[in-house]
């Protein structure tokens, strides 16, 4: 796994992100691992999901539920206009 510092990220973010497309990249601060950058596919494999997360109306996290309800209200109001 390639390793870069936070300062490297400020100077060469494009290079670091390109490297992360090939393999996970570690970002360090003061010599300690702080972040790991990996592709979405690698992340899904890591957490054991092979597809996009889907929620039902009642089990969606509050922010997603609120956004969904706002969108539905906009659609309904548009039909009544």
From TrEMBL:
Gene3D superfamilies, A to Z: YefM-like domain
Family matches, as Pfam families: PhdYeFM_antitox
InterPro entries: Antitoxin_Phd/YefM (IPR006442), YefM-like_sf (IPR036165)
Domain of life: Bacteria
Function, as annotated: Antitoxin component of a type II toxin-antitoxin (TA) system.
Listed NCBIfam families: phd_fam
Family: Belongs to the phD/YefM antitoxin family.
Protein name per Swiss-Prot or TrEMBL: Antitoxin
Organism: Rhizobium mongolense subsp. loessense
């Amino acid at each position: 796994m390639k390793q870069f510092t936070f300062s490297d990220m400020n100077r060469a973010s494009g290079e670091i992100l390109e490297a992360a497309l090939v393999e996970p990249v570690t970002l360090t601060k003061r010599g300690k691992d702080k972040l790991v950058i990996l592709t979405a596919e690698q992340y899904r494999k890591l957490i054991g999901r092979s597809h996009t997360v889907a929620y039902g109306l009642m089990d969606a996290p509050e922010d997603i539920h609120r956004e969904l309800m706002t969108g539905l209200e906009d659609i309904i109001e548009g039909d009544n206009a």
